[in-house]
Amino acid sequence: MSVAADEIGAGVPAAQLRTGALGLVEIVGQSLAAIAPTLTPALNISVVAGLAGTGCWMAYFMVFGMGDDTATLGASAAPFGDVAVKAGLGWASMIVYLAAMISVFACCLASITAAARLLFSMGKYKFLHRSMGLVHDTHRTPYRAILFCGCLLATVCVAMLPAGFLNAFGYAGTFASFGFVVVYLMLCIVAPLDLHKTREIKPHHVLLGILGTALMSFVIFGSVFPIPAYPYNILPYAFFAHMVAGALWFAVLKAKSPQTLASIQHDLEG
């Protein structure tokens, strides 16, 4: 099924539709980020490949439910509700909207939880200020990391309000989704190599790794080509600059505190 760029443009910019397609990756990815340390490489490959496949099928089902009317679907502010109405289940729209509200809350909570876990670990190993690695005396939770993430999230949301809800979601969602997709792509490549190193590799591990790599590569390629309108056209480069800054920070830490990296590797390997 092919959709022309000008047909998509009849509703909203194509970049916003691509952001919507990445939305499932981002939302589920936030929850996966919180449990990833407990997963084996084989399970990680299966989860990522299944996630990519589910997202593709979900997008096709929504287009199918709208009778291939991609322009209307692209212009819709509530596509799930419109699909329900198109199917003659208008009464189900309220259920869909309620579920969407719960989903947004869960997504926000998952974002804070996953980010707080990362900040806690980074503070513990002195990637960041040690205060991020402290826990509450009574509840034993990384309360400073959670508070910081919550305040940062609220600040970013308020700062982006002038751009409008849809545009704000598009900008933030596109930038964040690049992070998840790149991590999943690297995971699909590295996990089979890790299994080969431990002599646990099986043919289906290789197959799932190849499938996940192909799907993630397709998502990345479809997000940058054809070249989207401003400011979506600069977001990939902004993300790349963000990655370079992180790599430089890691290189400095490796040079100054190699024992810190050794401790992290020891904990990850159990």
Q: What does the average pLDDT come to?
A: 77
SSE topology string: HHHHHHHHHHH
Total strand count, please?
Answer: 0
What composes the largest sheet? none
Spatial extent as radius of gyration = 20 Å
Decide which structural class fits the backbone.
mainly alpha
Please give the oligomerization state of what you see: single chain
Shape: globular
Low-confidence stretches at least 5 residues in length (pLDDT < 50)? 1-28, 30-40
Q: What's the number of helices? A: 11
Keywords:
mainly alpha, 75% helix, 0% strand, globular
Description:
The protein has eleven helices and no strands. With 270 residues, the chain is an all-alpha fold. The chain has one domain (5-268). It starts with a helix and ends with a helix. Residues 1-28 and 30-40 have low confidence and may be disordered.
Topology of this protein?
Elements (H helix, E strand, L loop, with lengths): L4 H5 L4 H22 L5 H25 L4 H6 L3 H8 L6 H32 L18 H17 L5 H33 L5 H22 L10 H22 L1 H11 L2
Helix pairs in contact: 2-3, 2-6, 2-8, 3-8, 3-9, 5-6, 6-7, 8-9, 8-10, 10-11
Short description:
The protein is mainly alpha-helical and 270 residues long. The protein has helices at 5-9, 14-35, 41-65, 70-75, 79-86, 93-124, 143-159, 165-197, 203-224, 235-256, 258-268.
